[in-house]
Automatic annotation (TrEMBL):
EC class: transferase
First-listed, main subcellular location of the protein, grouped into a coarse class: cytoplasm
Protein name: 2-dehydro-3-deoxyphosphooctonate aldolase
Domain annotation DAHP synthetase I/KDSA: ranges: 13-268
Superkingdom per UniProt: Bacteria
Source organism of this protein record: Novosphingobium aromaticivorans (strain ATCC 700278 / DSM 12444 / CCUG 56034 / CIP 105152 / NBRC 16084 / F199)
Entry keyword Cytoplasm: yes
Keywords, sorted A to Z: Cytoplasm, Lipopolysaccharide biosynthesis, Transferase
EC number(s) per entry: 2.5.1.55
């Protein structure tokens, strides 16, 4: 399970990045990771547990940000040890990357910081796989420059081109709304990186609730099915045992109990897509 994005891609079925938006506590994270580990075994898919130790881009200063770097890394370390799942977390500051990389298996650069050169380079220089999220204000082609920054930093640090993925999470459509252009998933292939679709943040309604963002989680399955039909290497689905009580991004998070049924459908869609492509290739 402790592998780069390319190795997970070669398993011939979509991998999953999933977990709560923010670390709310050890017990909640452990319980969720154990449930996801059972799902990984049942569906024979690679699953990476995701949770953030600090959500530095919250709408309001009064919003819960997480336990912070030190305690957050201890919790992620326990989750990794107890569940057997690799773990992924966000990094918001270049100075945090090396310390975070000592604990986690994957780093992620937030969408709002997609063009922050120092952060991108510091994350890639750790040698850990990095999920590069496309910003809401960027076109797919803009990610070519982001990937180039990461690759050059990885090479300078002696890690070769590095293990990188690019992640689509919707594009700003007016104020407080996002849309997903499915053509983006094809266009992101030009980066040469595995393509991940973030189905939960794509239904976010930024700032819609005044002091926090809203969301339309009912649309998550629709967008996820469409993205898998187009062809993606991985899915990003934030979840929570009780999304209406989640401390961050609850309105656009799936219920933990709904992740398994949705992934079963997505695995079947992916298999049908691959079979159709093989038939067309062999014809």
């Amino acid at each position: 399970m402790n592998a780069g994005f390319e190795r997970m891609k070669r398993r011939r079925r979509p991998f999953l990045i999933s977990g709560p938006c923010v670390i709310e506590g050890l017990d909640l994270c452990l319980g969720m990771a154990e449930a996801l580990a059972r799902l990984a075994d049942k569906l024979d898919i690679a699953i990476v547990f995701k949770a953030s130790f600090d959500k530095a881009n919250r709408t309001s200063a009064a919003s819960f940000r997480g336990p912070g770097l030190e305690r957050g890394l201890r919790i992620l370390e326990s989750v990794k040890r107890e569940s057997g799942l690799p773990v992924l977390t966000d990094v918001h500051e270049a100075g945090h990357c090396a310390e975070v990389a000592e604990v986690v298996d994957f780093l992620q650069t937030p969408a709002f910081l997609a063009r922050q050169t120092d952060l991108i380079e510091a994350a890639a220089a750790t040698g850990r796989p990095v999920n590069l999220k496309k910003a809401q204000f960027m076109a797919p082609a803009d990610m070519l420059a982001v990937v180039d920054k990461a690759r050059m930093a990885s090479q300078r640090a002696g890690h070769g081109a590095g293990s990188l993925a690019v992640c689509e999470r919707g594009t700003a459509f007016g104020y407080g709304n996002l849309v997903v252009d499915m053509r983006s998933l094809d266009e992101l292939r030009a980066t040469g990186c595995p393509v991940i679709f973030d189905a939960t943040h794509s239904v976010q309604l930024p700032g819609a609730l005044g002091s926090c963002s809203g969301g339309q989680r009912r649309h998550v399955p629709t967008l996820a099915r469409a993205a898998v039909a187009v062809g993606v290497d991985g899915l990003f689905l934030e979840c929570h045992p009780d999304p209406d009580r989640a401390l961050s991004d609850g309105p656009n998070s799936l219920a933990l109990a709904d992740v398994g049924p949705l992934m079963r459908v997505l695995v079947e869609i992916d298999a049908a897509r691959r079979a159709e492509r093989k038939e067309l290739t062999d014809a």
